[in-house]
Here is the input.
Amino acid sequence: MSRIVWIAFLFLGLANLGAKDWKNELSEILEIHCYDCHGDGAKKGGLAMDELSDKLDDPAVFAKWERIYDRALNGEMPPKKIKDRPQADELKQMRLQLEPALVKAHEKSKGTVLRRLNQREYENTMNDLFGTSLELGGMLPEDGRSHEFDNVGDALGVSMQHMQMYLKACDVALEEAIAKTTQVPAPQKRVGRYTDDKKLDRYLGDNRLKLEDGSVVRFSPYGYPTGMIRTANTRGEGFYRIKVRGFAYQSETPITFSVGATTFKQGAEKPIFGYFSFPPGASGKTHVVELTAFIGAGYMIQVEPYGISDSDLGRRRPKKIHAKEYKGPGLAIHSVEIEGPLISEFPSAGHKLLFAGINRVEIPPRNPNDRTKSWYKPKFEIKSSDEKTDVEKALARLAKAAFRRPVNAKEVVPYVKLFEGERAKGEAFEPALRTAATAVLSSPHFLYLREPTGALDDYALASRLSYFLTRTAPDAELLSLARSGNLRANLRDQTERLLEDKRFSRFITDFTEAWLNLRDMDFTIPDRTLYPEYEPYLRFSMPRETEAFLRELIEGNHPVANVVKSDFAMINDRMAEHYGILDVTGSQFRKVNLPADSWRGGFLSQGSVMKVSANGSTTSPVVRGVYVMDRILGITPTPPPPNTPGVEPDIRGATSLRELLEKHRNVSSCASCHNHIDPLGFALESFDVTGMHRDRFRSKNGDKVNAIVRGRKVVYRLGPEVDSSGKFLDGSSYQDFRAYRDYLAQHDDRLARAFADKLLTFATGRELGFSDRTELDRIVVDTAPNKHRVRDLFHHIIQSKIFLNK
Here is the structure.
């Protein structure tokens, strides 16, 4: 009988079972089948069932009984070597007694957790509220994580440090949002060229060439000077429009280059905004790449070529080749135009929110003639003719927008009184109002998502949907539907609208960072000796491939089996080069069809996933097996027993990790877990720490390699051959990664359930638990006829009881 039918039977026919009796009812079964190892003085693995409490409101006790339930019903315990195993009627009795108690306990606990905005949600909400583009999230303490999700309420505490930083962030946002003038600030436009550098001539002939139209060609990303253009600089923080003019010189194919920013500020971040490609051209026939980027003050644009170099160009050696004689490809840059900071709205949304209808007047200078001076900057102040009315309206507007729901006059009174108290101390109108506004934005009504226990009301539902798909507060259309009580009736249409919204890209980034742990891309850096292929363009492209692939799964409504096996990849020129896929040019990501025997397709063969599931020098089938088990199959591995030594690869290559694991599995306390984990990780040994396919391990000992990477001879050596075969617990075996992914793809019910679980965890801000199993099973059953298509899964989870209730 299926799990769904069983649970329906439980709730219909056994609702009157007393929770206090369940342990007594199970005592005979436990004594017969479990106490030899876990009772009557035996305490294998630290578990004594006869001493275990039945107080399921204790999370630690609940977790142990849930584990007992799952292992018994799945046939994992007692071990199969035990002859006297529970019979079907005994397992049925265990299910009937324990399952309702676990469901009831979990239902009671899951509505008690408050969920605050995490760093990203706070930053998005503040910027969208005030019309700013500030990096506020980094001002706050780091968020806690629960199974790598940083928006789960259980892990999101609040400390005094949080409150101090919220006050500071509010001050920064208000300062940026409030207009300092009555005139629209005009963005400044500057055009920079390499030829602006008076010292350029001393470098011409080595690795640079000046053309007739003033373009300067670089033939290598190495050497001095760099691609920095000093005259294409920023004076203030904000969004800038950047136009790069140039072409691929002496090349029949496009040449890729990066556009970023650099600064002389010590320790400052030097961002790369993107990689682009210029097609072939000639002097006087340039192409233009345009982009918009947020840049801090005091930065200069930097352009660097990728994939072109010559070992002899510009070298101080007899074979030195001067740039004017060089016949190889180069990147010609004519100019870089930078315009900004760009003003999308003036005054800003935040200014209007606070000061709509209130006049801003100039403070007269002491000397009226100062107005005629070029250095003169007028100062302004707010002048209200009816302070009480204006402040009540302003704070009511702000509170309504910040709290994401209607507010009544009584709720606004404390903030008005705070304003009045500041005025009584002698504060001017504007700073007094800013103090009251800061109090609104530091309120739990703003910092926490209001989700009453039980069915969500329309305003809570609007917030949940919006923070799920756009990572910010609900927009006017969602709030309008909530106000009219029609959101539920239009939930599918609103889901479709938000899936197409440009802000959905925030979900793509945030979800992949959490679900697949891409936020830890830089936790380790691959050893340059072993993996010289790893460089900035590859690092830049890796997570973007994964994001592009997830977006394609959603937009194309592909079956969920594509999570592990697809006949296409979403790649650019750099990822294609890394994977050995031919005929892909240009930095843009696009859908590329794969042959049937390709090693690529699905998330598990992607460089980003292989990177975050390895360290900088070695891979581990255990680490990768746990990764697949948890993130792809939705099975939380049991932590190893205390004081269990780990299994580390022999980086000398003398002993294979497979051999070490074989010895490890001979320990009975290790075998039960490693028999599940290891088969899920062995196949991924086909890929190194950067996601390159391999037949042999790289090491610092072994056979020499005659190869050149990025113009330099490699120094790594080849060690033992890779054995990527394995055998699953059900007896199925595979010889390589391709057979492994075929096996996983056949279990699309499991993939769908795991993916739905991860989506719902991200959407609701809580770890799903025992009482959610029935609804998850229903989602899997309902989406099965159409192969669990990914976009359909979004609709099904948003329409589910889990999403619609707390």
The first strand starts at residue 188 and ends at 192. Residues 454-501 form one domain.
